[in-house]
Amino acid sequence: MGPFYIYQVSEFSKHGIGALKLYHYIKTKQGLDKRSPWVKVDNVNAYKWYGLTSSSKWRAIKKLEEEKLIEVKRKYGSAPKVKIICPKKKIN
């Protein structure tokens, strides 16, 4: 599992439990594959590991992308790839 940052958790938590589950999923996948910051968010593992349904996954992705906490690469017919762009700590 990748490192968790309190500031990031705080920012994601403002957008609901689905956003927190997505954050946890992303950090876990980053910990398993350290080659790239991009994580493919597939429905099967997101649901099996964290109970993140497809609809809540997409709601969270939309909210977090609008708030500029994540970056998303979409490809028709494939799971989206996401990357956390929220800073690790608050910069004054």
Q: Fraction of residues in helices?
A: 40-55%
Oligomer state of the chains in this structure:
single chain
Supply the helix-strand structural class. mainly alpha
Rg, Cα atoms, Å:
12 Å
Spatial strand arrangement across the major sheet: 1-3-2
Percent of residues in β-strands:
5-15%
Please provide the count of β strands. Answer: 3
The CATH class turns out to be Mainly Alpha
How would you characterize this protein structure?
With 92 residues, the protein is mainly alpha-helical. It has one domain (6-84): Orthogonal Bundle (Arc Repressor Mutant, subunit A). Helices cover 49% and strands 11% of the residues. The protein contains 4 helices and 3 strands. The chain has helices at 6-13, 17-32, 43-50, 54-66; strands spanning 39-40, 70-73, 81-84. A 3-stranded antiparallel sheet has the order 1-3-2. The longest helix is centred in the N-terminal third of the chain and has 16 residues, at 17-32.
Chart the SSEs and their pairings.
Blueprint: H1 6-13, H2 17-32, E1 39-40, H3 43-50, H4 54-66, E2 70-73, E3 81-84
Antiparallel strand pairs: 1-3, 2-3
Labels describing this entry:
single chain; 92 residues; mainly alpha; Arc Repressor Mutant, subunit A; 3-stranded antiparallel β-sheet; 4 helices; 49% helix; globular
Sum this structure up briefly:
This protein is mainly alpha-helical and 92 residues long.
